[in-house]
Design a protein that fits this description.
7-stranded mixed beta sheet, SAM-MeTfrase_NodS-like, SAM-dependent_MTases_sf, 24% strand, 31% helix, alpha/beta, Rossmann fold, Nodulation S family protein
Length: 216
Amino acid sequence: MALSATYFEDLYRVDDDPWGYRHRWYERRKQQLTLAALPRERFRRAFEPACANGELTALLAARCDALFACDLSGRAVQLARERCAELRNVSIEQRVLPHEWPHVSASDRHDLHDRRDLPDRRFDLIVIGELAYYLDPDETAQLAQRACASLSSDGTLVACHWRHAFVERRQPAEAAHAAFDRCISLTRIIHHEEPDLLLDVWSADGRSVAQQEGLA
C-alpha cells in the first residue's frame, strides 16, 4: 500500500522543497538528464505523476504543448501551481496514483483547462520520477499497465528513481523499472545507470532519435 498523504504533508509543512529540487546540484542535474533523455524535441500532450513542488514540471512545460501534472499532497499541488502559474499549457491536480490514473478515451473533446475532463485523452509523454518505489509490487504493476495503456502510438515513457535504500522505500528502483520493462508494447531505447539513480526511457514506436530523423 502506498504511503498516505499525511507523510508528505508533514514533509511540506516543515520545508516547501523537502528534497532540495531547487538548490541541490544532484537534483538539478537529474532534471537536466531527464530532459536530455527525451527522444523528441517537443511533445503534444504530457503527463507527470508525482510532480512534487513543480520544479521539473516547469522545465517539461517548455517541451510540451500541453502538460498535465498531479501529486498526492495537497500542499505540493499548491506549490506546483504557484511555480507554474504563468505557464498556460500546464494543469495540476491532486490525485492518488495508481488508483486515480487519468482515464483514456479515443475522444479529444476537452480544452486544457476543463480540469477533471482534461485527462480523457492519450499522452505522447509520461514522466514518472521518484514515485514507483513508494508503491508495493502490485501497485507498481498497475501503474505500469496504466501508463502503457495511456500512451499514444508514438508515445514515450520515462522513469527515473533514486537507487539508495531509505526507510519509506517499498522496493528498489531496479524492481520498479522491471515492471515497466514487462510492458510488451514498449521498447526500451535508453538505459542510464549511476550509483545514485536509474533512468530508463521506453518508446511505443521503438525508434531511436536518429531513426526518427531518417539518419539511420
